[in-house]
Amino acid sequence: MRLHHKLILLIGSLLFSVVIIMGAIFHDMEVKMIKEQIGQRALTLAETIASTPEVQKGFDSSDPSQIIQPFAENIRKKTGAEFIVVGNKEGIRYSHPIPERLGKKMVGGDNGEVLKGKSIISEAIGSLGPSLRGKAPVFNEEKQVIGVVSVGFSISDIEETTDVYRNRIILFALLILMVGAFGAMMIAYGVDKALFGLKPKEIGRLYMEKQAILESIREGLIAVNAQGHITMINHTALEFLDLEEGNPILGRKILDILPNSRLLEVIRTGQAEYDQEMMIVENIVVANRLPVLSHDGEVIGAVASFRNKSELYRLTEELSQVKRYAEALRAQTHEYSNKLYMISGLIQLESYQEAIELITRESDIHQNLFQFIMKEIPDPMIGGLLIGKFNRASELKVQLEIDRESSFKDVPQSVDRSSLVTIIGNLIDNAMEATFENALPTRDVKVFFTDLGEDLIIEVEDNGIGISEEQADNIFEMGFSTKSEENRGFGLALVKQSIERLGGYITFDRGAALGTVFTVAIPKHRAELKRREHHGIQTN
C-alpha cells in the first residue's frame, strides 16, 4: 500500500472515531441538559402550585377536588405538562388529567422525601407511563406537610425533543466527515509529493543512517543556513556547549549559542578554514569550517566540525555524580520507610511516649546535622552530597561522623565544585565499604574539613582493616580493586585525577586504631592555574 493511501486511511479512521465519540458525548450532554431543564421546570411549577392560595383553600374545604382539579388542569394545559397531580398525605388524588382517577392513590412510590418537607426531581413510572417529575410539599399555616404536588412531563415527549437534536448532530457529523475526507486526501497527496514518493520504512532508514553517521563521528558538528540559524547539531556538539538535548537549539542564531563562532564569516567569504583553535565553554577545540554551496555555486550555509583538545573527563564525572545522587535518594527513601514502620508499630502498640521520643530524636539528629552543614559547609553541592552520604550510611548501619570542628566556608570560586564532589563522595564511599571488612561491632567513618590557611584540607578516616603494603602502590590505579566484583577499582583513581586537576595531593596512613586515614590537600591559589593548564589555556 502506498504512503498516501495509508495516510488517507489513517486520517479518515482517526477523524471518523473522533467525530463518532464527540457526537455521542454531545448527544449525551444534550439529553442530560434537556432532562435537567425539564426537571427543574417541573419542580419550579410544582413549588409554585403548592404555595398558591387556591391549593391551600382547596385543602381546607370539604371537597378539595372541586377547587383543586379545575385550577390544576388550567395550569397543566397552559404549561404543556403531562400531568399535575395534587394529593394529600395519604397519597389520595385531588387532581388528575383523567377525572375518573380522582380519589385514588398516587402511583410511583416517590413521595417519601416530599412528605418530609423536601422538594425533589425524580423519574418514575406512574399511571400515565414513565415520566420526569418535580414534586413539592404543600404546607399549612403551621408549616406542617399536608399534601404533595407532582408535576410530570412524559419521557416519550422528552425523547422526541432529544431526537431532533440527535438528528442535527448526525447531520453535522456527516458534513464534518465529508470535509475531513477531502482534507485527508489533500494532505496525503501533499505529503507523498513532498517526500518524493518514499515509503515510511525508506524514510526511517535514511533518517537512522543520517543519525548514525552524525553520532558515530566523535567530533562536534554544527550546520547553519545563510542567515546564521542553526539547522543541525549532533550530540557531541551539545556536550561541548554544555547544553541539554531537550533544549530548543535548532532555529536559534549561532552567535546566541557560540558568540565567538566564525561561521558567519565563512558564509560571507565562501572560504573554508581548517584546524583553527578556539574556546568553547571551558574546552580548547580544533575546528574546521566549510561553506555549503548550492548547485549554482551560491553559499547557502556553513558547517563546522570540532574536536576536543583536552581529555574527556567531564562526562565520566557527571555520570558518577548522577549515580551518587541516585544512591543517596534510594538510601534516604529506604531509611525513612523503616523509621515510619517503626513509628507505626509503636503507635499500634500504644507506646506513644516511645514514638514521640523516637520522632524527637530523629528530628534532632537531622536538624542538628542540617544546621551544622548550612553554617559550616554552605556550598549547596558539597552540603547536599554530605546529607546524601549521611542517609546512605544510616541505611548501611555505618556511623558517619562529620567533625564539628570542620569549616569549609572559604572555598574559592576557582575551585571546581564537581571535582570536590568527586573527591569527597568517592573517599566516603570507599571508607564505608572498608568498614565491612572488619569484625568490629561498630563501623565508623569520620570526616574532617578545614579551609584555614592556604590549603583546603579533607580527611576521611575509617576503622576497616587498612591497606596492606602490597596494595599501597596500586590503590590509585584505574581498575585496581581488592574486591572480586566487576566494574570496581575506579573510585580512588577518579579521586586522584580530580586532585591532580586542582593541583593538590593525597596521602594515606593507618588510623588511630585501625583502618585508614586519607588526607587531601588542595592549594587555594593554585586551583585556577591548574584548571587552566588542564584545559590547555596559555597563561602569561
How would you portray this structure in words?
The protein is α+β, with helices and mostly antiparallel strands. The chain is 50% helix and 20% strand. The chain has helices at 3-50, 53-60, 64-79, 112-115, 155-194, 200-216, 235-240, 254-257, 263-269, 314-348, 352-376, 380-396, 417-435, 469-472, 491-501, 527-534; strands spanning 83-88, 93-95, 120-126, 129-139, 145-154, 220-225, 230-233, 273-280, 283-293, 299-308, 399-402, 444-450, 455-462, 505-510, 516-523. It has a 5-stranded antiparallel sheet. A 5-stranded antiparallel sheet has the order 7-6-10-9-8. Helix 10 (314-348) runs antiparallel to helix 11 (352-376), helix 10 (314-348) crosses helix 13 (417-435) and helix 13 (417-435) packs antiparallel against helix 15. The radius of gyration is 42 Å and the shape is flat. The protein starts with a helix and ends in a 6-residue tail after the last helix.
Characteristic key phrases:
single chain, 540 residues, alpha+beta, 5-stranded antiparallel beta sheet, 16 helices
Structural class: alpha+beta
Unreliable residue stretches: 310-317, 527-540
Return the average pLDDT rounded to an integer.
79
Beta-strand fraction estimate: 15-25%
Which value, in Å, is the CA radius of gyration? 42 Å
How many helices? The count is: 16
Q: Which descriptor suits the 3D outline?
A: flat
- The total strand number stands at 15
Assign a percent range to the helix content: 40-55%
State the end-to-end distance. 69 Å
**Biggest sheet layout:** 5 strands, antiparallel
- For the biggest β-sheet, the strand order reads 2-1-5-4-3
